[in-house]
Amino acid sequence: MTGLCLLVVAKAPVPGLAKTRLCPPASPEQAAEVAAAALLDTLDAVLAVPSAVPVVALTGDLPGAAQFAELRPLLARTRMIPQRGADFAARLAAAHADAAALCPGLPVLQIGMDTPQVTPGLLAAAGTRLRTDAADAVLGPAEDGGWWALGLRDPRAAEALREVPMSTAETGARTLDALRGRGLHVGTLPTLSDVDTVGDALRVADLVPESRFARAVGPLRAHSAPSKAAALPLTTED
């Protein structure tokens, strides 16, 4: 596989602003550590894809982020661009356009930082499909009804995202309809679970037990486990 722009749309993992749906049981600092670990693992996967040009569209205060010292050298190996746009859909469309300007003539495969279980092989295979299949686009569904990856042979087609309500249980289906409505043939990637809740984080950590992400999630397990005492029925001997 040669010739692919790999676009990561990311938010600086700043305590109090990152992964807030993990709080509680996580503290803001713990949630930021989980977000930083997810981004680090994602960057590792992206940087390991042969012949891909890594681009990161970032928002937020990076120097104030958790794990800034570890993030900085990895991000330095990418081309960084700021996110722009009034809402998330607009920022996604703009990120595709800006990535395409940096990588003229290349298809763009965009992911977020919520699937730290993603592998270089999976990303490379998606890129190969964009270059060799009949598909104009590839879409990776997420288990919650959204999507975790969008690849476009012609990145200008990302303008279709402006019509799609984001962060809903129908975002994936609506994105597929919007792309097909522009006449695109869309292939499907494997379904992954992204990380929004503590339950999501625990499930994904189990898939990649040796990862930074799993280590960051570890402290949340004790707080998330159901109480055995509460689960047992009461008897006259209790």
From TrEMBL:
Q: Which domain of life is it from?
A: Bacteria
Q: Which spans are transmembrane here? A: none
Protein name according to UniProt: Glycosyl transferase
Please give the organism: Gandjariella thermophila
Q: State the organism's lineage.
A: Bacteria, Bacillati, Actinomycetota, Actinomycetes, Pseudonocardiales
